[in-house]
């Protein structure tokens, strides 16, 4: 989700034990959302979100149910991850 009023190049990488297990990215239009390829695993992972060359890394626990995970880009360029 791009909650900002400008385009952003976004890459999402999910790591476990220092190994990249998922990577996808694209340019998001202002105030838009886009679905990346699904990541169907659950448990705790390191999620690296790169927005316009700046990377934010967070530890996130993907739930074991079918709920979707949302990665948001805020107006200040910060990243939020939520279910």
Outline the structure in words.
- The chain is an all-beta fold and 83 residues long.
- The chain contains no helices and six strands.
- The radius of gyration is 12 Å and the shape is globular.
- It starts with 7 loop residues before the first strand and ends with a strand.
- The relative contact order is 0.27.
- It comes from Halomarina rubra.
- Residues 7-82 form the Ig-like domain.
Report a brief summary of the structure:
The chain is an all-beta fold. It has strands at residues 8-16, 19-28, 43-51, 54-62, 70-73, 79-82. 12% of the residues are buried.
Give a quick set of tags describing it.
four-stranded antiparallel β-sheet; 54% strand; mainly beta; 83 residues
Number of extended strands: 6
- Judged by helices, strands and strand pairing, the structural class is mainly beta
Q: Flag low-confidence runs.
A: none
Largest sheet: 4 strands, antiparallel
How many helices does DSSP assign? 0
Return the string of H and E elements: EEEEEE
What is the percent of helical residues?
A: under 10%
Overall mean pLDDT: 88
The whole-angstrom Rg is: 12 Å
What gross morphology would you assign?
A: globular
Biggest sheet: strand arrangement = 2-1-3-4
Distance between the termini: 13 Å
The portion of residues forming beta strands comes to over 45%
């Amino acid at each position: 989700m791009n909650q900002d009023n400008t385009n952003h190049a976004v890459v999402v990488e999910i790591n476990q034990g220092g190994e990249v297990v998922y990577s996808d990215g694209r340019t998001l239009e202002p105030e838009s959302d886009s679905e990346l390829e699904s990541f169907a695993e659950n448990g705790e992972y390191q999620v690296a979100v790169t927005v316009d060359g700046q990377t934010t890394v967070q530890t996130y626990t993907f739930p074991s149910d079918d709920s979707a995970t949302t990665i948001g880009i805020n107006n200040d360029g910060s990243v939020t991850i939520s279910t």
